[in-house]
Design brief:
This protein is α/β, with parallel strands linked by helices and 233 residues long. 35% of the residues lie in helices and 24% in strands. It has helices spanning 18-21, 36-44, 89-101, 121-131, 140-150, 184-193, 198-220, and strands at residues 10-15, 29-33, 51-62, 72-80, 83-86, 106-113, 135-137, 154-162. It has a five-stranded mixed β-barrel, surrounded by four helices.
């Protein structure tokens, strides 16, 4: 059972990308980003930090064909292999309702966790069949495990970047460093060697733009997390 938060407790936002981590900032909020190993290292240093809630926040890949770019996903749980971590049910329901009332396209459902981006439509279809998940990301499992270990509420709020029917170019694997920052040099070098990937990268950038706009709208909603045991963000 989650512990009641102390008055000085912080909201911890866990993301993969630096751009995601910059969206929710302010007093009482700690945002960290990076790949799974880097996140685990940072979280190990927060063992004694008072926390109100852990939120996995950022973009995700769509697995349900009904989800379009920019659709918001509130995770009910995160699954990977035989592991399943449930999000705080009250928080998830309230987030879904708050976003829907604001006119956002939002779906509450199961998330799948992976160690690497799911690049192809075929792979997305297989993952959806195997897990029943509606979307996939690489950070929610790390966030969920940490929240479970700490005994604090856990929530997932994601925006679809690449829909289920979109293939991603393999260059996206080199586009982000372990610290969550965009690696422009690696992308340019990759395009020099494989210029045919440019159209796919342009499409991916367009899709992610819609997802980041949706995440930005979440930040602009007054009191989005109010009533979830969080600060007024």
């Amino acid at each position: 059972m989650a512990k009641p938060p102390s008055p000085a407790a912080s909201l911890l936002i866990i993301s993969g990308l630096e751009r995601e981590a910059r969206i929710f900032t302010g007093p009482g909020v700690i945002s960290i980003c990076g790949d799974a190993p880097r996140l685990r290292t940072k979280l190990a240093q927060m063992a004694d930090l008072p926390l109100r809630m852990v939120v996995s926040f950022g973009i995700c890949g769509g697995l349900d064909p009904a989800l379009r770019r920019g659709s918001l996903v509130v995770g009910a749980e995160i699954v990977s292999g035989g592991e399943r971590i449930k999000a705080d049910e009250t928080a998830a329901r309230r987030l879904e309702r708050r976003l829907a009332d604001a006119g956002e396209r939002v779906v509450l459902g199961r998330m799948a966790g992976t160690d690497a981006p799911v690049l192809t439509v075929q792979s997305k279809t297989r993952l959806r069949t195997a897990t029943g998940a509606i979307a996939v990301d690489m950070e929610s499992l790390v966030a969920g495990r940490f929240a479970r270990e700490r005994g604090v509420p856990f929530a997932i709020l994601r925006a679809v970047s690449d829909p289920a029917d979109r293939d991603l170019p393999s260059l996206v694997l080199k586009a982000v460093g372990s610290d969550g920052r965009t690696n422009i040099a690696a992308v340019v070098a990759g395009l020099i060697g494989s210029p045919n990937q440019l159209p796919g990268l342009i499409a991916a950038a367009r899709d992610s733009g819609a997802a980041f706009r949706a995440l930005g709208r979440c930040r602009s909603l007054p009191g989005l997390f109010l009533g979830l045991g969080l600060a007024d963000f």
